[in-house]
Amino acid sequence: xxxxxxxxxxCSVIETGSFVNAAxxxxxxxxxxxxxxxxxxxxxxxxxxxxxxxxxxxxxxGELFYARCRSLLSEIDEAxxxxxxxxxxxxxxxxVNVPVSFGIRYLARLWHGFHELYPGVRLxxxxxxRVVDLVDDGYDLAIRIARLSSSSLVSRQLSSxxxxxxAAPGYLEKYGRPQQPLDLTRHKTISYSxxxxxxxxxxxxxxxxxSVTIKxxxxxxxxxxxxxxxxxxxxxxxxxxxxxxEEIVKGSLVELLPQYRSLRLGIYAxxxxxxxxxxxxxxxxxxLLENLKDLP
Length: 296
Fold this sequence. Notes:
Radius of gyration: 22 Å
Shape: globular
Helix content: 40-55%
Structural class: alpha/beta
Order of helices and strands: HHHEEHEHHEHEEHEEEEHEHEEH
Number of strands: 13
Strand content: 25-35%
CATH class of the largest domain: Alpha Beta
Low-confidence stretches: none
CATH topology of the largest domain: D-Maltodextrin-Binding Protein, domain 2
Largest sheet: 9 strands, mixed
Number of domains: 3
């Protein structure tokens, strides 16, 4: 039994969304793809996929196995790339898309260090909070701060950040401090317009998960702008810790409802394919992983 091919086929079915697409990606027939997945389920004695004529979904066991399987295959790919790239010169243009605030605060100071290590690589850094299409827009790599769902893209987690609810002391003196998430509906709020959850702010509190829909007086697609308004006593905001940590330490912003924890987001390096990853991409991912591991 070729376990590696079974694992690879199973992951391809999930990532491409169908047996037909997986067959095209792997260069095999649909019948072969179906056979490999069925053999894997028979070997494990569990159903990994629920499939009908119209849709396909992972079972609970399938979700667990996919996560482990993907991690295993990624490690194998990384090992192969590391060995095969040792004899290759690291050079060429590397187009990278990064979020604006994170790119300025944390990545801008790292690029010179990367250049000293790999002078043959020409960096083309684009700052944008819009989620770009790596293939259509021609990027080799993107940094994304999110909760990533399954996709055809390859991701490697570099670090993480926690969403923090906070406001300036001046605002709290004037309007009071919320005692529970529901109180936020009666406060002035400032929202980040690219926030995946929209105007729904979710928390995990002493009694379990709770969510509240806010009505912001202002929204912006830039976190720094949201923070500037909060610093001027203009409302409560929910922003990642890497942006507000310094202001909280200084006391110019105050964390609110610490007993209600908001979402934790991963900071990922995302690239189009795990097959034949260019050396320039691989060394940048390794470089960022090393330099972002102590992110506050």
